[in-house]
Amino acid sequence: MKLQLYIIAAMSENHVIGLNNNLPWHLPDEWAHFRRVTEGKAFIMGRKSFEAPDALHSEYRNVIITSRPPAHAGPNVEYAKDISGAIALLSDETDVFILGGASIFQQMLSLADRMYLTIVHAQVAGDAYFPAFDMADWELASSEFHGADDDHAYSFSMNLYIRKRPE
């Protein structure tokens, strides 16, 4: 089977995905959605995303892209120097999730087959942004709206986009 690459991210309406290497919001139901979607799958992410205080790691397999891998990897952690090296390490997988950060999303956007993209319905301050993309390349397959409540300061929509294939 062909390796399928899936971007998974949450961004504000102004494309913010992070502030000081943390998420700029706390959305427990969105995290639960993330866990459901990615359970038992391999992850690719940059070093800063992996080291973020609020980072989620795969209990199965994490490939970290960094120019300076440590001498010893932790459990379920592998290192690659670049995107092609990460993909080569995971060539035996069928479904791989790309977790960011911004430069990893930018480099992998053209390779992704799907995007699990949560839109946080707010304009927030940040220093990391999801890259611009052409919506004409994607079909919205599903969308689930979640309103703001006592546990969620912002409303959000958990969207699944599937890349349109040339006919």
UniProtKB/TrEMBL annotation:
Molecular-function GO term, any one: NADP binding
Report the family membership.
Belongs to the dihydrofolate reductase family.
Q: Which InterPro entries match?
A: DHFR, DHFR-like_dom_sf, DHFR_CS, DHFR_dom
Q: Which domain of life is it from?
A: Bacteria
Substrates-to-products reaction catalysed: (6S)-5,6,7,8-tetrahydrofolate + NADP(+) = 7,8-dihydrofolate + NADPH + H(+)
Output this protein's name. Answer: Dihydrofolate reductase
Functional summary from the UniProt entry: Key enzyme in folate metabolism. Catalyzes an essential reaction for de novo glycine and purine synthesis, and for DNA precursor synthesis.
Q: Main EC class of this protein?
A: oxidoreductase
Q: In which pathway does it act?
A: Cofactor biosynthesis; tetrahydrofolate biosynthesis; 5,6,7,8-tetrahydrofolate from 7,8-dihydrofolate: step 1/1
Coiled coil start-end = none
Q: Where does the DHFR domain start and stop, copy by copy? A: 4-163
Species this chain originates from: Dyadobacter soli
Biological process (GO) annotations? dihydrofolate metabolic process; folic acid metabolic process; one-carbon metabolic process; tetrahydrofolate biosynthetic process
Pfam families per record: DHFR_1
SUPFAM superfamilies named in the record: Dihydrofolate reductase-like
Q: Which EC number(s) does the record attach to this protein?
A: 1.5.1.3
The protein's UniProt keywords, in alphabetical order, are: NADP, One-carbon metabolism, Oxidoreductase
One Gene Ontology cellular component term attached to this UniProt record is: cytosol
